[in-house]
Design brief:
alpha/beta, Rossmann fold, 6-stranded mixed sheet, 4-stranded antiparallel sheet, binds adenosine-5'-triphosphate, binds magnesium ion
Amino acid sequence: MKTIVTVNSVAKSYQETQVIQHCSFQIYEGEIYGLLGINGAGKTTLMKMILGLQQIDNGTIYVLGEEAGNHPEYLSDVGSVIETPTFYEHLNATELLSMHLCYMQKTANIAETLHLVGLNNVNHKPISQYSLGMKQRLGLARAIIHQPKLLILDEPLNGLDPIAVTELRELMRNLTDQGMSILLSSHIIGEIRNTADRIGILSGGYITQEFEVAEKTSEYGAHFEDYVIELMRGGSK
Ligand SMILES: Nc1ncnc2c1ncn2[C@@H]1O[C@H](COP(=O)(O)OP(=O)(O)OP(=O)(O)O)[C@@H](O)[C@H]1O
Ligand SMILES: [Mg+2]
């Protein structure tokens, strides 16, 4: 299996506070890897380091064969939505995506991408008039329009209605079927269970447990959540 991301013994602190330490995991081609951790566990921090947006104090991160750091070239093959996406809100969706493509020096079918994320009926409405869910969809459109090999989604289901959640799951599955790898984060067990292939539990600054969702679902059945909560608390079963 081809490795897309390798996080190797990474450490990160903000001032005096150690947020990440001895953190190691890998993401393989075509899989959805779910990072599960409570608020403040360091999920966003890890994602930002993978994207070269936060400095790594110790250890290494390799993405698509290249070391993460300042302005790495692999970023043209990565798409991301970190926390709540921000936009130039006076633009409409088409203008925003065409500006993004220009910046990324790529071409793509904007109408097709908007259709894919369910934003085909927004016409010329400025982004300032979008609902939260519409902004989430637009953030996703911006993250996938240049057909990245790696997609990083920080709590992607926030603000989405149940139909949108189902649609987004299907979209993620279609993208991985085409070979894309996805890293997503969540603090909601049920959400990540229904979306990810593998889960890594981030607790105390590192991945304390890692497992295949299908395997543990069949092992624990209705007690899957209890099992995972115990792991998130720092126990082991
Ligand atoms: N820029 C920063 N400066 C100082 N401390 C920070 C900074 N960013 C994050 N932190 C701290 O690092 C810790 C981890 O934050 P992070 O945002 O990575 O967690 P998270 O797992 O994404 O949480 P959430 O589920 O709430 O999004 C928190 O204690 C937070 O206060
Ligand atoms: Mg976060």
